[in-house]
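Protocol step 4 of 5: obtain the predicted structure for the target chain.
Materials: sequence only (see below). No template structures provided, no constraints applied. The aim of this step is simply to have a reference model before the mutagenesis design in step 5. Sequence pasted as it appears in the construct record:
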Amino acid sequence: MSEQVQNLSLMGYVRRILPFSSVDGPGNRTIIFLQGCSFRCGYCHNPETIALGSVLSTDEVSLRSPEDVVQEVLKYRLFISGVTISGGECTLQPEFLLDLVKALKKENFNVLIDTNGDFDQAFYERIRPWVDGFMLDVKSVNPEAHKELTGEDNQRVLENLNRMVQDRTLCEVRTVIVPEWLDNTHTVSYVSKVLAAHAPETRYKLIRFRPHGVVAQFKGKTMPNHTEMEKLEKIALDAGLKQVILV
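Step 4 output (structure tokens):
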């Protein structure tokens, strides 16, 4: 991970808090978006969440304590089934994230971590007892393609995929399907086999690439058609997965 926030065990950079969402985990959930990301994905639809540090505008991002964030979430308690912490990449602020999930669990919230998987096993061991599950993006299993897409290696992503599946802490995996560039068949096949071996009931979302608001090199790329998506869906189902969702 190329950036780390230091000495922020009691404060963290929060981009925004979305009171209600039905697409970021099961049920109606409050979503906490933390600022900063270790990846620079060419098709990122939330590029405003990437930067971290002195370049931030205080009008866009607030420095908040876990207790302050929890107090805001408590306003929605009667209307939600849980909280999902996302980004950016929320694990880029590890100490704040850990304090935040502990504070949320004290209030008996169901807590999910939405992550790109770019964090080490030591942090996974620290945060795992405090959360109810992880939602993981697996962009490509090919290391060269992953680095070209994100600017970073995928070794820790794949390590976390395998570990979370074995521990049964993984509630959802997502892969964005980009035709004629990423080896979508290879990635979907690999992920499906890993899930099927230990947790075939895990949701696997296959998300159509959409060329809206992306960087220049992706603007000319096309969305996958229905036939391509159905082919990938069949790969996942044939591997033994129970929940394959096309988005």
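Step 4 remarks: The helical segments are 66-74, 94-106, 121-127, 143-150, 155-167, 184-198, 216-219, 226-239. The beta strands are 12-21, 29-34, 62-64, 82-86, 111-115, 133-137, 170-177, 203-208, 243-246.
Proceed to step 5.
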